[in-house]
Please model this.
Amino acid sequence: MAVIEVSELRKAYGGHTAVDGVDLRVERGEVFGLLGPNGAGKTTTVEILEGHRRRDGGEVRVLGDDPATAGRRWRSRLGIVLQSTTDAPELTVREFVRHVAGYYPAPRDPDAVITQCGLAEKAGAKLRTLSGGQRRRVDVALGIVGNPELLFLDEPTTGFDPEARRQFWTLIRGLAADGTTIVLTSHYLDEVEALAGRLAVLAGGRIVAEGTPQDIGGRAGESTVSWRDSDGVHRVATPDPSALLATLSRPGLTDLRVERRSLEDVYLDLIGEGR
Amino acid sequence: MTTLTAPLPSTLHLGLARGGLELKQFFREREAVIFTFTLPAFILLLLGSIFDEPLDGFPGTDVSQVFAASMIAYGILTTAFQNIGTGITTDREDGTLKRLRGTPVTATAYLIGKIVLVTVTAAAEIALLLGVGVVVFDLRLPTDAGRWVTFGWIFLLSVIACTLFGIAVSTVARSSRSAAAVFNLPVVALQFVSGVFVDIGSLPETMVKIASFFPVKWMGQGFRSVFLPDELAAQEVAGQWEHGRIALVLGAWCVAGLVLALATFRWSDRRPR
Model:
């Protein structure tokens, strides 16, 4: 059974249609990326899946239940990492993570979660003294301490330094390896490429492409071949790089590279189409 | 899987845990504790010192002692109505409510936490006010159990009514910055028209009539009946303590507050984004 099943999801605010017929399916154990520019309907879609917002139309099943009517037991199986919270400034990291662990029937060990999120040294620090990146890691710790089957990560690494991002990726891969299903929304394409097994691109409230990071939007269909020779630097886009390579025997050839189109190029094309 | 069989923590258990956490956070915010929590005691010190003279016609009682008794109503109003109202607005703004909504914590558990917070802070506030009253203004604490029973039910009804209205009004304030202003106006206005800051006998009749619709007048009257000699009842509008009417009015406000709080409480403000 799929962890998330969505068909024909619709949501309008006043006259503005934010989500316009979205279909999604996420299987157990997947890391699923949801990409899209601001205003594409990403946050609305995720908030409907989390049970934070009501839908206007369509069918939604998350962990087998309708989020609009699901109860406490359902919530206990869910982990949500929020964006930009500033709550509990006077509590220490350890106090807050332990307290939130008490909300759940079978939580993870709070101290282990704190260490896992790279906060061991800050466990006794009050939340108001933390940097933006450390604060986000507390949000992640609070999202996973309940030992969720399904975890929603909304822009999780905003404000992280590069090292913290790498540590965070390792953490997410570890959770995925343990069988946690993860829905990730992010502006960072490299993050989605590094973490997600499958992704969908939202634009204008619709899904404009779905696939793996390697083949989405026909990414696998075209490659860029670049090289340097005595005439300078060359870049050629081609669907058949090996045919081109066969012709590339020339003096002074160096820096020869064959690359797929970057996810960024594909993404920008896709959201351009949706507008 | 064990997660499917382990029991969910009960709403009461979660509510008490929330209450402990709320108290910890409240008393750690030093500025709020110093400047908000001690404000009623500070005002009592000022008013009591300015009017530190025997009450006309009641040689055994000072005006400052009347203030000390009435000011308990103000203490409950700030800790219950004002602090809860601004507290919930802040919780809505800083992500507390949104976070809780994504967990198995129920709205009831959240509200139990607030009630624990209010009960403890209101009791501490009253202890502080009575302390100032006894030490500085020779207020005599009652020795017979009957008066403490009266104190008990007036305290409970007052706290419940003020808390429920604080919850209801919290939806009016759109941000924690505006909340302080939104809550201050009714609180200060009601102190004046209800005879907390000013002797109720000297107020214009219309003002007293208006004040009689609101709970503060009855709270002040109730606490005066607990801490002042019985002959002081002659100073009241009706010439008596009117315990039955106090219970009736405060009880009605509790019911109305409950209905309003249930109708208006929401996890988030619903403005779309």
